[in-house]
Amino acid sequence: MAKIIFRLNGVPDDEAHDVRELLASHAIDYYETSAGNWGVSMPAIWLKDDGQFEQARALLDAYQSERTVRMRAEYARLEREGKNRTFFDAVKEKPVSFTIHLALAWLVIYLSIQLVLDLAQ
Asked: Are 47 and 82 in contact (CB under 8 A)?
């Protein structure tokens, strides 16, 4: 029976690629499911053979520990150099999009509060 080994929700493409390569290089049979046409399914990597789960889990745990150290070092380097991306950088890149999203959020909050106040009367 198939067993899930790695969920792909919110995973960067490079990490997903590394995981695929890691499993393939150790001859671990797997298949991948996508989020589907509407994005409601669970994108994941599944093992075809339950017997390989412990080996695959150990490989992934080691990989993720190494990746964590590498990504934290990269973040610290970018922070020292002043090149890390901040919230304000994202706002500066797309000010119109930010303003629209902010206005929509305020509209939803206003309508929600107004609904509650109207129902209270």
From this structure: no
Report the alpha-carbon distance of residue 25 to residue 11 in Å, rounded: 20
Rounded to whole angstroms, the Cα distance separating 118 from 121 reads 6
Interatomic CA distance for residues 62 and 26, integer angstroms: 14
pLDDT at residue 85 greater than cutoff 90 = no
Strands across the sheet with 3-7, in order?
3-7, 44-47, 30-33
Instruction: Estimate the crossing angle of helix 53-81 against helix 13-25, to 10 degrees.
Output: 140
Specify the pLDDT at position 4.
Answer: 95
Q: Residue 1 pLDDT more than 90?
A: no
